[in-house]
Specification:
Elements lengths: L1 H21 L9 H4 L2 H8 L20 H19 L9 H26 L7 H9 L2 H5 L6 H17 L12 H15 L3 H19 L3 H31 L3 H6 L5 H10 L4 H9 L2 H6 L7 H11 L1 H28 L13 H14 L14 H9 L8 H18 L4 H12 L10 E6 L19 E5 L5 H13 L6 E8 L3 H5 L5 E7 L11 H4 L4 H4 L2 E6 L2
Parallel strand pairs: 1-2, 1-3
Antiparallel strand pairs: 3-5, 4-5
Helix pairs in contact: 1-5, 1-6, 3-4, 4-5, 5-6, 5-8, 6-19, 8-9, 8-10, 9-10, 9-11, 10-18, 16-17, 17-19, 18-19
């Protein structure tokens, strides 16, 4: 009976994950969910006006283009093809531009569920209880349905854990066929985000320990490691070639046509222009000055704040269990097993699941070495944490707290956080593309202030179309904001010009000091800006809706 209830609950949560993606979710977690894939691909494939982030400029290529092409690129190519074939006349709109890449990521997110189902018995957990814990987490519902590179990192980490934990039916040794796949997944993860090495370290050591422990022949052992290295090298060549062609705009036709180049000349030219994005990424991020530009945090932020923010009581339980096991096993692990049973003894599957804690805390420790620490960097750790929490029924007595925590997290990050910006862009896209009452083209100026960076692709404007101007004022001060608004108000250059100011309700009063008037205002609710949070006394008054809203203000001539 309990198993049937767990299965039904998982099915319900899985349907919620897919349905909420299609609804769609209005919360805006971080600009990277748009600017590390969908925005770039919308410009390249759909020829829309977009903002290209510095990581995708040919002068500073720090992100591989392979995964954006395989995810957002594929979905945009599909909707473009459907429109060109007249299967649907308006396939490309703000809704499909937002939802189609998210839907693909939501489908991919079930790799996590598959991994938990496969791994739970191996680590002594009930598969369906573990699946409910996973599917009910707001991290799965919100973060794993968004187009983050961290989401892909989590999925690749899950696949790697499945590969290294696979055993023969006898349960005696590791699957020998997984060496090649482990090489491919590890290298793909490294090119997606070089931080993947922190997640891959313990799984690779665990796999190496099992291989060494189970193989009697040195020849077989070398064969495993050679397979892994060769497949890793081949995968790296694929990524480097794709990135080189993308970032240097090299085409094979041009290479061959130049003085009828030989194959050796072509290879030489490609080598000279070779782009290795992970090395550029590491070179940039290992510079403390560069990291400080994105925000510096105390080294303990992941342990004390981000882990709790993402996983709640499960993170706290893991820390408590970690300290207990460290205290209990430190002498045994460091002395007895190291000396007498070799490295595999450090990473054994025991009742206390110390290995799962290593899968969780070792990446957490490595990521804590960097001063820039954001919660989303930890989302791949949900898999070992869920497996650990589901084993020995650790999470059962905390289930009410877990439910309340995830409801709050889903509401905050899935609905409220910067939640007015996406509906605002939907509204503006419809306004911009509405039929013009006269033959004169309308001109729109959209000025965003104190919001996250607006993804221009959702406005669905072609690169050749010059009648829409987007100005992102970010967190500009009152003086700079008023100066820009007044300048725009005094420079109406056409009879059919429209200037819109998009600003949160918490800083709405700033605009009233600018000496301009508005003929229309639209309030989009809800919208919570943590950079300009509402004051509690104001929320308790009758003005709470305005404080938790985003205003679209149209300037009067």
């Amino acid at each position: 009976g309990a198993a049937m209830v767990a299965r039904a609950l998982w099915a319900l949560l899985a349907a919620l994950r897919a349905g909420w993606c299609l609804l769609p979710q209005s919360g805006y977690l971080h600009p990277d969910e748009f600017f590390q894939a969908p925005e770039v691909m919308a410009g390249d494939i759909l020829n829309l006006q977009v903002y290209y982030p510095w990581e995708f400029l040919s002068s500073s290529p720090c992100r591989t283009v392979v995964f954006p092409l395989m995810t957002s690129g594929v979905t945009y190519w599909v909707i473009k093809s459907l429109q060109q074939l007249d299967i649907c006349s308006s396939c490309i709109n703000s809704y499909t531009l937002l939802v189609s890449p998210r839907l693909l990521f939501t489908i991919f997110s079930f790799i996590l569920d598959y991994s938990v189902y496969r791994l739970a018995p191996f680590w002594g957990a009930d598969p369906w209880k573990a699946l409910v814990l996973l599917a009910g987490s707001y991290v799965t519902l919100v973060f794993y349905t968004r187009t983050f590179t961290n989401t892909l990192e989590g999925l690749l980490f899950a696949l790697l854990m499945v590969l290294v934990s696979s055993r023969k039916s006898s349960g005696s040794s590791a699957e020998p066929t997984s060496s090649s796949l482990i090489g491919v997944v590890t290298t793909a993860g490294f090119f997606n985000r070089p931080t993947f090495l922190a997640f891959a370290l313990v799984p690779l050591l665990y796999w190496a320990g099992l291989i060494v422990d189970s193989q009697k022949s040195i020849k077989t052992l070398i064969n495993h490691f050679l397979k892994l290295i060769l497949c890793a090298c081949f995968t790296a060549i694929v990524f480097i070639t794709a990135d080189t062609f993308y970032f240097t705009s090299v085409s094979l036709d041009n290479l061959y046509s130049t003085n009828k180049s030989s194959l050796i000349d072509v290879i030489t030219q490609l080598h000279d222009k070779m782009v290795v994005t992970p090395f550029n990424f590491l070179s940039y991020n290992l510079n403390p000055h560069n990291l400080a530009l994105h925000g510096s945090h105390p080294r303990v932020t992941h342990f004390t704040v981000n882990g709790v923010m993402l996983f709640g009581i499960l993170h706290i339980l893991a820390i408590g269990a970690g300290f207990q096991m460290l205290k209990k096993y430190v002498h045994q692990l460091m002395l007895v097993r190291w000396c007498y049973r070799g490295l595999p003894g450090l990473l054994v599957h025991s009742e206390g699941s110390p290995t799962l804690l290593l899968f969780y805390f070792v990446p957490l420790g490595f990521l804590s070495l960097f001063s820039h620490q954001e919660p989303r960097f930890l989302i791949p750790l949900i898999l070992p944490l869920v497996l650990f929490s589901a084993s020995l029924n650790r999470a059962v007595k905390w289930k009410l707290l877990i439910v309340l925590f995830n409801l709050l997290g889903a509401l905050l990050f899935g609905c409220l956080h910067q939640g007015g910006l996406i509906p605002c862009l939907f509204h503006l896209e419809q306004l911009i593309h509405s039929p013009a009452p006269s033959s004169h083209p309308r001109h729109y100026t959209l000025l965003f202030a104190h919001t996250y960076m607006p993804p221009r692709s959702l406005l669905n404007i072609q690169k050749t179309d010059m009648h829409v101007e987007v100005i992102d004022m970010a967190g500009a001060g009152e003086e700079t904001l008023c100066q820009t608004v007044e300048q725009r108000a005094s420079n109406f250059t056409c009879s059919d010009c429209h200037i819109f100011i998009i600003i949160p309700g918490t800083v709405r009063a700033t605009i009233t000091k600018c000496g301009v008037s508005f003929k229309n205002e639209t309030l989009i609710f809800p919208h919570l800006s943590m950079e300009d949070p509402p004051e509690i006394p104001v929320l308790s008054s009758g003005n709470w809706r305005s404080q938790l809203g985003l205003y679209i203000l149209e300037l009067n001539r």
